[in-house]
Specification:
4 domains, Rossmann fold, disordered N terminus, single chain, 897 residues, 8-stranded mixed sheet
Length: 897
C-alpha cells in the first residue's frame, strides 16, 4: 500500500473525510479510533484502496490536531470524556454572527476576537458532548478577571453550545433586577438578535421568567434560553416548569451558566456540614442539576476562593457545585485595563524599570474621620468635602474635558464614590457633592475665579506628568497628553453635562437608575455621572467609562473586596486617564489579593502540565493575616489549614524598616553567605547576563543565612519557611539538597559586595505610606522582581530554545508560570535565592506624587541626620516537585502573614 506522505490527495475528499470523522465522533460520542474503524468497516468496501489512504490521513490529521489542542490547553481537566468540539464550522450561524458583530460593529481588535474564539472553543470542548448518553453530568469553572470580558466569553460559549446541539440554556445572572437586565441585554445584542429564528427566549429585557402552568419548551431546530435572577422565588418558577416537561425532553442537552458563581449559589451554611441545613438557593440549584439528565454546569467568576473551598460532596450527600471536572483560566485580553497594571508587585521590566501604572492616589488617614464613621454613629454623621475627595471630583471634570478633545464626548464617562453600604450615607454624599463641589466650582468657572482655575491647572499638570513617554507609548491613548490651556475652554460645558446619581437597593432611587445603552440602541443617551452607591456597585454592575474612583469601602473578605473594584475593564483611547483614590491599607489588601489570584493561575498551569485533575489536587487558597478569603459560612468544615505549603511560591521582601543597624547587619549576613557559598562549593560567583550566580550550594548554608538575615516586616513568613525547611532535615536534604544563588544586577551605581565585584545596584522607588509617621518608620517599594528573574541561573542557549518553543506559547501572558516551567525543564526542581542590592540613590524617572526617592520623607524629627544606605531585598523561589504536592484529595487553606 502506498505511503501517506507520497500520496497525492484529492483535497476536497480529504477535507470532507476530516469533517465526517469529526461529526461521527461527536454525534456518536466515541473515540477517534472507534470513529475511524466504524467508518472503515462501513465504507471501505464501496471505494478503492485510495480511499483507505485518505481515511488514514484524515485520522492522522485529527490525532495531531487533538495532541496540539491538548498541548495548548490551559484547562485543568478531569478528562472525563473524549475531545468532541474542534472549533466552529462555516454553518455555525450563532458563533459566526457573533464574531462578525464583534469585529464590524463593536470594532474589537482581530487578535482579541481570535483569543475569544480559542478560549470559548476550549470551554465548549470541556462541557458535555450534547450527544452523550443520558445521565451524564459535567461541573466546571471559568476563571476570569473582574470586568475583563467574562460576559463576552459566556456569550461565545452560549453561541457555540447552541450551534453544536444544546437545546436548553439557563443563565443565572446576578441577584438584582438591574444585573439580570444588563446580562439579558448583552446576550440579546451579542447573540439572539442576529439569528432570532434559532432561539426561543423565555425572558426578555423587561421580564424575568414568568409563573405559569406551561412546561419549558424544547424544539428540534431551536435552542430555548432563559436568563434569570439568582433568586429563590425565580428558580422555584423555573423548577415548576421543568417538572411539567415530558420525560424524554428532560434528557435534552442542557447548559447551566452561573454568572458570579461564588455569590449566592454556594451553600452559605457549608461550615456546619449538616444535611438538614443547606441554604435555599444552593439546594434548588442542585435539584436542577440532579433532575436534568444530560447537563453541564459552568460557573464564571473572577474570585474563586469560595468555589475552591467548597467540598466536592455536599452535606446532603449530593454532588456540590465544586468544579470537579474542569477549571479554565482566561487570559487578560490585550486591551484590558486590569489588576496587574494597578496592583501587581512583580512588574519590573528588563531595563530595571517599575512599569506599574501610577494611578493609585492616597486618601490620608487623617481624612477618614470626616469621610466615614462607625455604624452606631450613622444617624448623626455628616461627611465633609476633604482635599482628596475634592481632587477626585476636580479630576473627573478635567478628564471629561480631555476626552472631549479626543472625540470621546459622546461616550459614557463616569466617576464612582463608594464609601459605605448605608443608604443614608449615599444621600448625604449626593448633597455634599452637589452643594460643596458642583455649585461652587460652577460659580467659579462662570466668574473665571483665579483660585479655582489655578487649583484645576495644578492638579492637571501633576497628573498629566504622571506617566513617562515610554509607558504611555504602550497604552491605548494619544502619545501626547492635552495641555490645560486646551482643557480650560471646555470645563464649564462639561460640568453642565454632569449628573449626580445614587445606585443602591433603595426603591426610591428607581427613577435614577443608570442604563448604559449601546450607541446603536435607539434609546442611547450619553451618561456623564458621578455615581454614588454601595452594594450595587460591589459586583456585576458595569459603570461605563469609569475614570475617577473614590473608594473607602473596606472588607475583611478578599473576594468581596476584589469585586468592589469596578474600575477594571476596557479604556479604549483613554487608558492613561483613570485614577483611584484609596487608603494605603486598602491598596495593600488589593495587592495581596492580586498575588493570591496569580497564584491560583500558576497552580492551574502547574497541575495541568503534570496531568493532574481538579478533584485529585484541589487548588490551594491563601489566607492573609486578619483576613478571610471568603465568607466563613462558605468554607467547608472539611478544609484543612496549613502554615507550611510553600511549594511553588516566591517569597519576597518589599517593606523595609528605617534602621541603619539592621541594614548594616544584613549586608554582613550577605557577605558571610557569599563567603560560605564559595568555601563550601570551591567555586566563585560567575557573571551570567546582568547577575552573578553560584550553583549547587548546600541548603544548610541557606539556613544559616536565613538565621542571620533580618527580614524585618516579613519575619513571620520567613520564620515559617525556616521551620518548614527544618521540619524534616533528612527528607528536605534529598529534595532541596542544593540551591542556586544569584545577586541580581540593576541599572544603578556599581559596587562591590564582599568578593563579588562591580555589581550594578537596582533602582527601586518608594510609594507613599498611610501617614507621614509611617514614612519615618518604613520604606515600601511595592515591586522588587520580574518574572524573568526566575531565569537568572539558566544558560542563555536554553532560554533562547525555550523562547522559541511551542511549550512556552501555551502560557500566554502567564509569564511567571512560564518561567517556572522553564526552570523545571532545564534545572529540574532547583530552589533559588535572589539577592537584590537596592541603591540608596534610587529615584523615579520624573516627578510624581505616587513614587518617591528611596529616602525621601523619611527623616525622623529626633534624627535629622539619618544617612541613606543601600538596602538588600530577598526573593526565595521554591519549586513544586510532583511527588510533593501535599494537598491530594484535601481542600487546603494556606495561612499567609
Amino acid at each position: 500500500m502506498e505511503k501517506i506522505e507520497e500520496y497525492k490527495f484529492n483535497n476536497d475528499k480529504y477535507e470532507s473525510l476530516i469533517e465526517d470523522l469529526k461529526d461521527y465522533k461527536t454525534l456518536n460520542n466515541v473515540s477517534l479510533n472507534d470513529a475511524y474503524l466504524k467508518y472503515k468497516n462501513d465504507y471501505v468496501k464501496f471505494f478503492d484502496s485510495k480511499f483507505l489512504i485518505e481515511l488514514k490521513a484524515a485520522k492522522k490529521f485529527l490525532e495531531e490536531d487533538e495532541i496540539k489542542a491538548l498541548d495548548y490547553s490551559k484547562t485543568l481537566s478531569s478528562r472525563k470524556q473524549e475531545s468532541w468540539y474542534f472549533g466552529p464550522k462555516e454553518n455555525h450561524k450563532n458563533w459566526n454572527s457573533y464574531k462578525n458583530y464583534l469585529l464590524n460593529v463593536k470594532h474589537r481588535p482581530k487578535e482579541v476576537v481570535e483569543l475569544l474564539n480559542n478560549e470559548t472553543t476550549e470551554v465548549v470542548n470541556q462541557i458535555l458532548n450534547p450527544y452523550a448518553p443520558s445521565g451524564k453530568k459535567i461541573m466546571g469553572l471559568v476563571l476570569g478577571y473582574v470586568q475583563s470580558g467574562k460576559t463576552a466569553n459566556m456569550a461565545g460559549v452560549i453561541a457555540k453550545a447552541a450551534d453544536s446541539g444544546y437545546k436548553l440554556i439557563i443563565v443565572l445572572a446576578g441577584l438584582t433586577k438591574s444585573l439580570r437586565a444588563q446580562t439579558q441585554a448583552r446576550i440579546q445584542n451579542d447573540i439572539l438578535q442576529h439569528n432570532d429564528i434559532l432561539w426561543h427566549p423565555l425572558t426578555d429585557n423587561e421580564n424575568d421568567i414568568e409563573e405559569g402552568l406551561d412546561a419549558i419548551p424544547i424544539f428540534t431546530k431551536k435552542t430555548t434560553i432563559c436568563i434569570i435572577k439568582k433568586n429563590v422565588q425565580v428558580i422555584v418558577k423555573l423548577i415548576s416548569k421543568m417538572k411539567r416537561m415530558p420525560k424524554l425532553e428532560m434528557q435534552s442537552s442542557t447548559l447551566i451558566i452561573d454568572d458570579e458563581c461564588d455569590q449566592a449559589s454556594l451553600n452559605t451554611k457549608e461550615y456546619k456540614d449538616k444535611a438538614d441545613e443547606i441554604s435555599s438557593t444552593n439546594k434548588l440549584l442542585k435539584k436542577l442539576l440532579n433532575d436534568f439528565k444530560n447537563v453541564t454546569y459552568v460557573g464564571y467568576t473572577a474570585t474563586p476562593n469560595a468555589p475552591f473551598l467548597t467540598h466536592p460532596t455536599s452535606p446532603d450527600g449530593l454532588q456540590s457545585l465544586y468544579p470537579r471536572d474542569f477549571i479554565t483560566p482566561l487570559e487578560e485580553p490585550a486591551d484590558y485595563f486590569g489588576v496587574n497594571k494597578l496592583f501587581a508587585n512583580n512588574i519590573i521590566n528588563e531595563t530595571d524599570e517599575d512599569i506599574s501604572l501610577p494611578f493609585i492616589k492616597r486618601i490620608p488617614d487623617s481624612e477618614l474621620e470626616f469621610l466615614t464613621c462607625k455604624r452606631k454613629d450613622l444617624p448623626t454623621f455628616k461627611p465633609s468635602l476633604t482635599n482628596s475627595l475634592r481632587d477626585a471630583c476636580d479630576y473627573y471634570l478635567l478628564v471629561l474635558s480631555a476626552r472631549s478633545l479626543r472625540n470621546l464626548k459622546e461616550d459614557h464617562c463616569c466617576m464612582m464614590i463608594h464609601v459605605s453600604r448605608s443608604v443614608r450615607m449615599h444621600e448625604l454624599y449626593r448633597n455634599l457633592i452637589y452643594e460643596e463641589w458642583f455649585i461652587p466650582i460652577k460659580k467659579g468657572l462662570e466668574n473665571n475665579d483665579k483660585e479655582i482655575i489655578d487649583r484645576l491647572r495644578n492638579l492637571w499638570n501633576l497628573e498629566s506628568n504622571a506617566i513617562n513617554s515610554s509607558v504611555r507609548s504602550n497604552l491605548n491613548c494619544p502619545l501626547k497628553i492635552e495641555s490645560f490651556q486646551k482643557l480650560e475652554k471646555n470645563l464649564l460645558n462639561e460640568l453642565n453635562d454632569i449628573s449626580i446619581n445614587v445606585e443602591n437597593s433603595d426603591d426610591s432611587n428607581l427613577d435614577q437608575r443608570l442604563e448604559f445603552r449601546d450607541k446603536k440602541d435607539k434609546d442611547y443617551k450619553t451618561i456623564h455621572s458621578i455615581v454614588i452607591g454601595g452594594d450595587v456597585l460591589s459586583r456585576g454592575l458595569t459603570i461605563d467609562g469609569l475614570v475617577s474612583s473614590f473608594f473607602l469601602r473596606e472588607s475583611k473578605q478578599d473576594d468581596t473586596l476584589m469585586q468592589m473594584g469596578r474600575w477594571f475593564g476596557f479604556r479604549h483611547g483613554f487608558e492613561d486617564l483613570p485614577r483611584i483614590w484609596m487608603t494605603y491599607d486598602v491598596e495593600l489588601d488589593f495587592t495581596n489579593f492580586v498575588e493570591s489570584e496569580n497564584f491560583f493561575r500558576e497552580q492551574i498551569n502547574l497541575l495541568n502540565s503534570q496531568n493532574q485533575t481538579p478533584l485529585e489536587f484541589p487548588i490551594l487558597v491563601r489566607q492573609f493575616e486578619q483576613r478571610n478569603p471568603t465568607s466563613k459560612g462558605k468554607i467547608s468544615k472539611k478544609v484543612k489549614k496549613s502554615a507550611s505549603t510553600f511549594f511553588g511560591r516566591e517569597l519576597w521582601t518589599l517593606r523595609f524598616k528605617l534602621d541603619q543597624q539592621i541594614h548594616k547587619d544584613n549586608e554582613k549576613a550577605i557577605i558571610n553567605l557569599i563567603n560560605n557559598c564559595e568555601s563550601t562549593t570551591n567555586s566563585n560567583f560567575i557573571k551570567m547576563r546582568n547577575a552573578h550566580v553560584i550553583k549547587d550550594v548546600g541548603f544548610k548554608v541557606l539556613l544559616k543565612f536565613m538565621d542571620d538575615f533580618n527580614f524585618q516586616f516579613h519575619a513571620d513568613v520567613f520564620d515559617n519557611v525556616k521551620s518548614f525547611l527544618n521540619s524534616d532535615l533528612e527528607s528536605i536534604d534529598s529534595i532541596f539538597k542544593n540551591w542556586n544563588i544569584a545577586i541580581k544586577g540593576g541599572s544603578n551605581i556599581k559596587r562591590d559586595i564582599g568578593s563579588v565585584k562591580n555589581v550594578k545596584t537596582m533602582n527601586r522607588t518608594k510609594i507613599k505610606n498611610a501617614t507621614s509617621e509611617d514614612d519615618e518608620k518604613m520604606i515600601d517599594i511595592k515591586s522588587i522582581s520580574s518574572p524573568n528573574d526566575l531565569l537568572v541561573d539558566i544558560e542563555q542557549k536554553d532560554i533562547d530554545e525555550w523562547e522559541q518553543s511551542d511549550e512556552k506559547k501555551k502560557f500566554g501572558k502567564q509569564l511567571r508560570s512560564a518561567a517556572k516551567k522553564c526552570r523545571e525543564k532545564y534545572l529540574g526542581y532547583r530552589p533559588l535565592l535572589i539577592i537584590y542590592p537596592i541603591s540608596k540613590n534610587s529615584k523615579p524617572e520624573q516627578d510624581s506624587d505616587t513614587r518617591f526617592k528611596l529616602f525621601s520623607r523619611t527623616h525622623k524629627k529626633e534624627d535629622l541626620n539619618y544617612e541613606p544606605h543601600d538596602i538588600f531585598g530577598i526573593v526565595i523561589a521554591l519549586p513544586t516537585p510532583p511527588n510533593l504536592i501535599t494537598n491530594k484529595n484535601d481542600l487546603v487553606l494556606d495561612l499567609i502573614n
